[in-house]
């Protein structure tokens, strides 16, 4: 059995999400190759070659893949993936964008967001905002799968020495163009790989008040997240959103501040190891999942917490 | 310009769905159903484009059992002009839905196809992208802003690092994210008017599409329960617990 893992990368470095996908591929078993598609993506391919257990890295280095346009990447992955039993990618915004195109081109189902591998054709995945876990069996000859990164501990990044093979296939569907990107630069850890996250909700009242979380985040080396309500209100950018339809996180410590604990928010954080909730409403549903609940006004509690750390 | 919007009937987003105790399926008895919130955003966007004079006609399509005509009527009440119901029993998979939509698109030739990015039941996040691959159309997924320009649609997309803007040639596929718009409520007169708008029913056979499943659900279970936590009295007790009991800071 052969599995192709599609790398998540920024052309120079390999994202941790790739290692989570490799871990899922390892759970399936058999040979693992990694496809790195990008432009000037040699350094990312070299990083992928160091992942232990990987037989081969296929590097498709061309301008048409620079911005990961789903139309082009989809065609490439469908072509390269045709030789494999399984095609896996992390369930990131990027993976979610191109993988269903791959599945449709190969005329197979996609199994989204797997949580575990039960056997070569059977997987667990969350449905209904994670309130139900479904066990699903695929009857397709080939499986196209996206992997929930929080469900698989990252495979080691170093120690392997896979061969790197260039792929010269150039797919330009010619229907989409990259125009621009607004990517916030931050010195903080990424939300999806941070070991501590502190998130603010509507209770923060405005964007300026998020500075109350920043001081604490600095001390804990934490990422900052938010509820949908805080994003919708414009307190923080969209990429802060944790939840069913935002980012799925599972840090060692998740601190929810001024967040009520709607089903959709819980869906994104309830697998965190330790959950702390700070909310002035003692009946807020967030307390039902919190290991440590503090009923308090956040405007008093946060400065105290920062001082106590 | 013609817009086609896909709408799905799903459990209302306020309902906490549970697995049946025998583990065979989810318990949807007497549960409130509604239009998938992302599909509602899709309808709203099409209606705004029509109000702006960009779109001339909006066709709302739903694939599912006869009950999903209710959600087509909701779309019609929000401003869609006519509906198409593709009648399929059970729970068609995203790939089957995409194939059926492709067949409808072949009949309707829309310039813009707007779908929700995911439905809140299966949480698959697949149909729009699959439809893109099957039709060869480009896609602007997870849209938080769209602008129709000459022969193309500019889509601001919500991605992991922030926002990305792409230009997709028409005909194009857009899938909606939460920030694209805030859907209106249907007024009573519009709900009444919607009852008279045309609604056509088609079958997979008429569209020559097989809806053969590729995946079987062999069981469901509740997610792991979290052990009950405690309330702490104050910040210093919280810090003490995190340091000495949970050992996470
Ligand atoms: C299709 C769909 C998808 C969604 N996806 C997501 C998602 O991915 N992520 C997500 O988060 N939500 C999502 N939602 C929204 C979700 O349903 C809730 O509306 C949202 O999570 C609420 O955010 P909140 O807890 O910040 O706000 P609220 O529910 O308004 O809660 C604010 C909380 O702050 C507390 N508070 C106020 N002032 C203070 C104070 N001074 N001190 C302490 N506490 C205070 C209040 O007691 C309250 O509990 C989605 C909804 C839909 C329909």
Would you mind describing this structure in some detail?
The complex is a heterodimer of chains A (309) and B (249). In chain A, the strands form three sheets. Chain A has a seven-stranded parallel β-sheet with strand order 5-9-4-1-2-3-10, with helices on both faces. In chain A, strands 13-12-14-15-16 form a five-stranded parallel β-sheet. In chain A, strands 6-7-8 form a three-stranded antiparallel β-sheet. In chain A, helix 7 links the parallel strand 14 (253-257) and strand 15 (274-279). Chain A starts with a strand and ends with a helix. The longest helix of chain A has 13 residues, at 16-28. Chain A is built from eight helices and 16 strands. In chain A, 26% of the residues lie in helices and 29% in strands. The radius of gyration of chain A is 20 Å and the shape is globular. In chain B, 27% of the residues lie in helices and 31% in strands. Chain B has helices at residues 37-51, 69-78, 94-108, 127-135, 188-194, 235-245, and strands at 2-6, 9-11, 33-35, 57-64, 82-87, 112-116, 138-149, 152-159, 162-169, 172-176, 199-202, 215-221, 230-232. Chain B has a nine-stranded mixed β-sheet, sandwiched between helices. In chain B, strands 2-3 form a two-stranded antiparallel sheet. Chain B is α/β, with parallel strands linked by helices and 249 residues long. The complex binds flavin-adenine dinucleotide. Flavin-adenine dinucleotide sits between chains A (201-203, 227-230, 241-246, 258-260, 262, 264-265, 268, 279-281, 284, 297-299) and B (13, 37, 120).
């Amino acid at each position: 059995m052969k599995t192709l893992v599609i790398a998540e990368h920024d052309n120079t470095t390999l994202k941790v999400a790739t290692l989570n996908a490799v871990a899922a591929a390892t759970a399936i078993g058999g040979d693992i190759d990694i496809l790195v598609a990008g432009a000037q993506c040699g350094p990312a391919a070299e990083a992928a070659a160091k992942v232990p257990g990987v037989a081969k890295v296929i590097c498709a280095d061309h301008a048409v893949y620079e911005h990961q346009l789903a139309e082009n990447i989809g065609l490439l992955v469908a072509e390269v993936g045709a030789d494999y039993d399984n095609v896996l990618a992390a369930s990131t915004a990027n993976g979610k964008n191109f993988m269903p195109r791959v599945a449709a081109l190969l005329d197979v189902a996609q199994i989204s967001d797997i949580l575990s591998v039960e056997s070569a054709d059977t997987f667990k995945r969350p449905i209904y905002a994670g309130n139900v876990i479904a066990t699903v069996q695929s009857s397709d000859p080939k499986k196209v799968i996206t992997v929930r990164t929080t469900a698989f501990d990252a495979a080691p990044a170093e120690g392997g020495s896979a061969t790197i093979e260039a792929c010269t296939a150039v797919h330009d569907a010619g229907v989409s163009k990259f125009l621009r990107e607004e990517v916030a630069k931050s010195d903080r850890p990424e939300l999806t790989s941070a070991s501590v996250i502190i998130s603010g909700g509507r209770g923060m009242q405005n964007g300026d008040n998020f500075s109350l979380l920043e001081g604490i985040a600095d001390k804990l080396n934490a990422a900052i997240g938010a509820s949908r309500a805080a994003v919708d209100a414009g307190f923080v950018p969209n990429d802060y959103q944790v939840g069913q339809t935002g980012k799925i996180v599972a840090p060692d410590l998740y601190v929810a501040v001024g967040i009520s604990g709607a089903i959709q928010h819980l869906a994104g954080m309830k697998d965190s190891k330790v959950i702390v909730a700070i909310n002035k409403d003692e009946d807020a549903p967030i307390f039902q999942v919190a290991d440590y609940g503090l009923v308090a006004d956040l405007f008093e509690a946060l400065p105290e917490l920062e001082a106590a750390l | 310009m013609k817009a086609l919007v896909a709408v799905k009937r799903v459990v209302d987003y306020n309902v906490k769905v549970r697995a049946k105790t025998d583990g065979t399926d989810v318990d949807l008895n007497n549960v409130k159903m509604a239009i998938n919130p992302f599909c509602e955003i899709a309808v709203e966007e099409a209606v705004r484009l029509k109000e702006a004079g960009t779109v001339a006609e909006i066709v709302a399509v739903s694939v599912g059992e006869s009950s999903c005509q209710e959600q087509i009527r909701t779309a019609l009440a929000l401003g869609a002009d006519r509906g198409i119901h593709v009648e399929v029993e059970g729970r068609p998979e995203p790939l089957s839905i995409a194939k059926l939509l492709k067949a409808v698109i072949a009949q309707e030739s829309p310039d813009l196809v707007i779908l929700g990015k995911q439905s809140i039941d299966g949480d698959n996040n697949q149909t729009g992208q699959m439809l893109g691959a099957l039709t060869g159309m480009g896609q602007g997924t997870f849209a938080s802003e769209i602008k129709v320009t000459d022969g193309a649609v500019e889509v601001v997309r919500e991605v992991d690092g922030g926002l990305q803007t792409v230009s997709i040639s028409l005909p194009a596929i857009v899938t909606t994210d939460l920030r694209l718009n805030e859907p209106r409520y249907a007024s009573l007169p519009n709900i009444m008017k919607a009852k008279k708008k045309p609604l056509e029913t088609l079958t997979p056979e008429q569209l020559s599409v097989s809806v053969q499943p590729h995946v079987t659900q062999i069981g469901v279970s509740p997610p792991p329960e979290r052990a009950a936590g405690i309330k702490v009295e104050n910040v210093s007790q919280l810090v003490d617990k995190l340091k000495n009991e949970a050992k996470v800071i």
